[in-house]
Amino acid sequence: MPSTRKVKSGGLLSGSRHCLVRAVSVDSLNVRIAEESEVCMGGGFWALDIKDMSWVEHTAEEVDFIEKVLALNSSERILDLACGFGRHSLELARRGYSVVGVDFTEAYVDDARRNAAKEGLAAEFILEDVLKLKFESEFDVVVNMADGAIGYFATEEENLQLFDVIARALKPGGKHLVGVCSAAYAIKHFPKRHWEAGSKRLSLADFRWNPKTSRMIYKGHLFKFGEPLPVFPDKFPDSGEELGTRLYSIEEIEQIMAGRGMKVVAAYGGYDCSTPASEDAFMQVVRSDKA
Ligand SMILES: C[S@@+](CC[C@H](N)C(=O)[O-])C[C@H]1O[C@@H](n2cnc3c(N)ncnc32)[C@H](O)[C@@H]1O
After folding, report:
1. Residues in contact with 145: Cβ distance below 8 Å, sequence separation at least 6, in sequence order
2. Distances from the Cα of 41 to the Cα of 13, 22, 73, 244, angstroms
3. I need a surface site. Which of 28, 33, 167, 188 has the fewest CB within 10 A?
4. How far is the C-alpha of 209 from the C-alpha of 185, rounded, in Å?
C-alpha cells in the first residue's frame, strides 16, 4: 500500500484473507464483510477478491442513479475518489464520460487500467493517496462511492482534508455524490448483526458504535459458496481500541460542506431516489453542489 499513513480500511474490504466489511444498506441486504473473523481496524489490506463481494454487484444500477440524481449528460469530466478496481469509473466511461479514478491500492489500479485498455475506454487511473491530490477546479463531478475513503483516516483532521480535496477538485457549479454509512443509523441500531447473501458468498457482519469517536467498528465472516464452513469465534470485538470508520450525520455533512463553499441539496437512504436518508436507512447517499 503506497501510503504509510494509518488508515482504516474502512469498510469493506477485502481481502484475500483479511478484512473488512461494511454495510451498505440493511434494507437491500447489501453488506460488505470482513473475512474469516478478522477485524480490520487501523490498517487495511485490500485485494481483488472484493470482486466477489455482494456490494459490488449493483454497479450499473448505482451508475444509473448517479446519472439521474446529478442530471448528467455524458459530457461531464468525473473524478472517482478511492475508486477501487474502477467499477464505477469504467461503467461511467462506457457511457461516454471522461473519468479519472484514484486509489492507493496497486492491484486495483492495475486491474482498472487493464480493463480500460481492453475496452478502449476514456478512463485514467492514478495510483495515489487521495489526500495527496492537488486537482483545482478540474472536474464537473466528484464521486466517493462505497465510502470512497470518507472516514477512513486516523484523525479528524485527515478525515476533513478529504472534503478539502473534493471541494478543491470541483469546478464552480460542480456536483458531488457520496455513498456512506449513516451515523444516525448507527446510533439508533448498533450493535447489530447482519447476514447477507451475495451471488458468490454469504456474509455475517457485526457492527458496533463508538459514541465518543463517532466511529463504526465491525467484524465479519465470509462464507464462500461451495467451500466447507470455517470455524469462527462468535465474539464481538470488545477492546474499544479499534479505530473504525468515522461516520457522519447529514447535519455534519451539511456543516462540513458549507465550510468548503458547498451545499447539500439532497440526501437519499440508498441508491434509490424514493427513499430519503433517515435514521432507519443504513446507507446515506448525499449530493452536494459547489457554489
Ligand atoms: C470500500 S472500497 C470502495 C472502492 C470503490 N469506490 C467501489 O465502490 O468499489 C474503499 C477503497 O478505498 C481505497 N482507499 C482507502 N484509503 C485510501 C486512500 N487514502 N487513498 C486512496 N484510496 C484509498 C481502498 O484501496 C479501496 O479501494
Report:
1. 62, 80, 83, 88, 177, 178, 179
2. 11, 12, 39, 5
3. 188
4. 10
Backbone φ, ψ for residue 24 (5° rounding): -105, -45
Ligand 1 pocket, mutate which of 3, 85, 147, 178 (most atoms under 8 A from CB): 147
Under 8 Å between Cβ of 174 and 141: yes
- Cα first-last separation, the chain: 35
CB of residue 141 inside a 6 A radius of ligand 1: no
Residue whose Cα lies nearest atom 23 of ligand 1: it is 82
Q: Which residues contact 216 (CB under 8 A, 6 or more apart)?
A: 22, 181, 186, 190, 207, 208, 209, 210, 244, 245, 247
Q: Please indicate whether residue 108, judged by its CB atom, sits closer than 6 Å to ligand 1.
A: yes
| pTM for the model | 0.86
12 lines ligand 1 (CB under 6 A): yes
For residue 203, report the distance from its CA to the centre of ligand 1, in Å. Answer: 20
- C-alpha pair distances (Å), 215 with each of 43, 125, 207, 261: 15, 30, 10, 26
Residue nearest to atom 1 of ligand 1 (CA): 12
CA of 238 from ligand 1 middle (Å) equals 26
pLDDT per 10-residue tile (average), the chain, 291 residues:
37 31 31 34 61 83 97 98 97 98 96 97 97 98 97 97 98 98 97 86 87 89 82 63 89 98 98 95 97 97
Residue 15 beta carbon below 6 angstroms from any ligand 1 atom: no
Give me the pLDDT at residue 195, please: 87
Q: Assess whether the C-beta atom of 177 lies below 6 angstroms from ligand 1.
A: no
Cell 480500460, residue?
A: 116
Which distant-in-sequence residues (6+ apart) come within 8 Å of 7 by Cβ? 43, 44, 149, 152, 153, 154
